Amino acid sequence: MQILDLDATSLAREIRAKEISCLEAADAYISHLERVNPKVNCLVEDRFEQAREEARQCDRMLPTDSIKGKLFGVPVSIKEAFNVAGMRTTCALSSRRERVESADAAAVSRLKAEGAVVLGKSNTPILCFCQETDNKLYGRTNNPWDLSRTTGGSSGGEGALIAAGGAAVGLGADIGGSIRFPSHFNGVVGFKSGALQVPDSGVMPVFNDPYQQYMLGIGAIAKSVTDAELINSIISFNSPRAINPAQFELCIPEPHGKFPVGEETALILNRIREALADSITVNTEKPPFFEKAALYWQLIMSFDGGRGIAEVAFDNEKPRIIMEYLKEVTFGSSTLHRYLTWALIGANVFKPNSTRLQTMKEDIKIGKAAVNEYLTNRVLLLPVYHSTAPAHGELYRELFSIKKTFLKFIPYVAFANLWGLPALTVPVGTDKNGLPIGVQLISLVGNEQALFYFGRILEERYRGYIRCALYD
Questions:
Q1: pTM of the shown model
Q2: Half-sphere exposure for 174 (CA within 13 Å, toward CB)
Q3: 388 and 316, same structural domain?
Q4: Annotated active-site positions, please?
């Protein structure tokens, strides 16, 4: 198996055994990224020479047996929204392209402390405010399995990069499916941490509202469930509690009439349900408050009418949202992608009034208790989206339509965000065009070991990660 196919855990083991040198690993990924990136456009800033020098330093330490760290010498990639010392964090804003960060984000610092070698940073939509990865500063990221398809977002550059084998493992963030969409569309493993489990300092944009902070998760975009677990163990505040997986049951609800699931996805879900029922307790009980997940997610993201995001987008000058939107759709002359300005217009339209906000908060308090009871000793398996990766622009039209079509298309990902739940996405199949299909496993904070346990079962019995080797 070549270096590009190895997950981070395996590569770290090969490096410790002196079977692969750190420079050999770095060079393999750098050369591959130089081939892949012109087509996929996943990497937006590299530190290749620094990475090579760090790899050489690691190699000089190998003969002395002074290896330290679970990721010693392992090349990794980082979502552009995370600060990396000596690199820019633009979040695709032209106004920030000359700002170089002096310190690492907390999660990046923890990876480096374990010996990780950062290759570079991957593309995002502007201010991570969209589930499609396209912006005016760096351009559009393409799905490596089909360049005409979306890679998802907002960790879309990271999803495409790992799918193409551009690093051993990557780091992403998720407040509205931003790890799980790219994992599903690109056929990689993704893990969204539960609420407040991973430090978010040094990550853009900054979420100050406690409900938004609760929805945010940070974790790996990876080649294996083992790597997702490894990265979580490194960047989390606390180690997951020990659990007995035999005491857990798996819940795979039948497709919900109001929320579409594609035929091929439904067939895979049914196949998993039937196959696992022989060895695992499987039921079809629907999760509570599922039908309200998308609405409440949208209200929380729109609680200030998008004012906070707009202030950052306009660099604290008076926002000109409608003007910039019209400039872009008419002349293509705005520095802000129309995806952002249209989303900000929508956030203002959907801004909840005080009465609706109070009703939602009371409902959420009741819902948390119901969800906690439902997920005690239980793992929920859901699709990520109703289809495989759609053509560029289609996902945005479905999730940001004035017709509120997000209410039927985003509940599967919004459920985990709304309730602050950890979620693990695992590739389990493909559609007739060879595009990946993933499912997500969801449970309570503290039940992460159950997610990784069931994730390994799915990984072993079904597709798992397969590197897209179209550009070798």
A1: 0.97
A2: 37
A3: no
A4: 79, 154, 178
